[in-house]
Amino acid sequence: MRFLVKFFLIFLMLISFNFKAVADENLSETELNFYTGMFDFSDNKQKAGLFGLEHQNEQLFRNSALGKLSPITGGFLTENNAFYLYTGVQAEYDLGFIKITPSFAPGYYNYGNGKDLGYPLEFKSEVKMSFDLSENSHLGMSYNHISNASLGTKNPGANSYMINFLKKF
User: Fold this and answer.
1) Residue-range domains of the chain with CATH
2) Which of 46, 76, 120, 121 is the most buried (most CB within 10 A)?
């Protein structure tokens, strides 16, 4: 629990920073997502606090029949030293001041002292809802499920929820 409190304080500090908006159109629009929450909240014996970081380059987006698609790369660490590194794709649906962002990302999972998910290759499906704080900042909440799609001998999966702070640079 102390892990979650520490990272929540770091999260609040990130929100309180006053980042200067860059008006130069030639700079790439990079979005960083700082998030913290509860890993595998539905398993009382294995739940753990987590902290993560995700990167999205908005210049690499493609408009498609599925919406505005862009690549994501990120990772998280739990208080039990489990970590997940991933890369995948997200779709973005802008509904005014609220954005809905589903994503899919395969990645490498190492359980450290935490929950054994059964296989190093895991797949993360996530949905995030965020609202505008300013033109370059968003605050949101997300839910994800990580599973190995029965590639391993066991496939317990993990459900997580997070608070997200997204900032464009």
Assistant:
1) 2-14+30-163 (2.40.160.20)
2) 76
